[in-house]
Each structure stands twice: as C-alpha cells, then as structure tokens.
Amino acid sequence: MMARRLVIAGICLAVLIAAVALVLDQMASKPGPATAQSSASPSPGGDPSNGNSSGNASAPPSGSPTSGSSSSVPSDGSGNGSGDGGTAAKPLEVLPPVTATPTGLPVPSAPAPLITGPLPKSGTAKGSVVEGWPSSVVTLPAGTTVGSTSISSSGNVLQLTADGIVGTSQEDVLGAFRQSLVGQGFWSEDAPAPDGALAARFVRGTDTVTVSVSVTGTGVSRFQLLGSLHTTAD
Fold this sequence. Notes:
Layout: H1 2-29, H2 33-40, E1 123-126, E2 145-154, E3 157-166, H3 170-182, E4 187-190, E5 198-204, E6 207-215, E7 221-230
Antiparallel strand pairs: 1-2, 2-3, 3-7, 4-5, 5-6, 6-7
C-alpha cells in the first residue's frame, strides 16, 4: 500500500515539474508586458505623437523632401533639366513695326542765295574785271594784277573764272579769299593741288568757289579761281 502511494506521488511530482518547466519556457520565449510597456512609453522631452525624442537623428533635415511631398522629382522628367538634358529654347521676340517717324535734329534749311536774277550776260575781260562780276560776293585780294576774268550764265547758275598775280605769299592770298568768303557764310576745306601749290575749296549751300595759288618764276603768287553761284537756294 505504501509503495502504491509513493508511485502516485512520484507521478504527480513529475507532472508538476513538467508543467513548471513548460510555463518557464513560454515565459522566456516572449517579452513580458512590463518590457513592452517600457519601450512604448515616451521618454522625457519626446514627442508624444510619434514616441521619438526631440533629438532623434532619424528625423529628416529641414528643407529635405519627404515621401509624398510636392518637392519630389516629377515622374515625366520635367523641371530645371528638360528631357533632352538642356534648357528649352525660348521663342524669338519680334519687335513691333515702327509706326512713328524717328525724331532727331532738324534738317538745316538751305541758306538764302547771294545773287538774284536776272543774271548778267556772259563775257570775258583781259587785264580787268569783267562787267557783271559779282564783286559783292567774290572779292579779289588787294594789289591783284588781273590776268583775266569771265562769267557765264546758264539758267539759275552764274559761273566765274579769274586769274591774277599778287605780290604776297601763297598763304596770304588764300587768307584774303578765306576772310572775304567765310564772312558771307562759306566754310572752307583743303583741295587737291599740284606740287608747290596750295588750294582751298569754299562751300555755302550749292555755291562753291575753288582757289589755287602757285609761285611764279619771279617769286610772286599767282592764283586761279573757279566758282559757281546760284540764284536759288536749291
């Protein structure tokens, strides 16, 4: 009878040991509730909404695009770099047609004519000034020994020619003509001349006078004049 009790007690003890071992094994294979609660609870100073601390390094930096944000790269490849790898060409700008006449300095009006019609008859004189010579416009230098003078009228144009000898330098002869003509509105410029000679061209509107001065074998100056005067401004 005693032996039977011992056997039953041994069996019960073995079952109890096996049950305790099974419970301990299950408890070791899964975390306890205290551990899970500890990992889920927010740390001091953390964000209660996501459980991360304020210094969490996994948070994206400021200005960095996040998933689903509008700053993500477009799926069609558009953006600063076009599909072909370059900037898209801009259309050429077409200027509108000019409708107004450009303004600027006014065109200077032609000077009033220095002679008026009717023009004198054509003529030539040797050793003197021909009749009808426009002496109020073209004055010969003082002390001139006249070789010849002539005038020729054609329409509204009076053509002049003259030659003479003056006992002064070439520069003085040109200076005398320049003083007379520039005072009446002519402007002057150098003109082509043969070697050893000086020449000047005087212009006023459509009127022109050209004077060439050379030196004779005796050392005096000889001038030749060719001019064209108009009775109208154009």
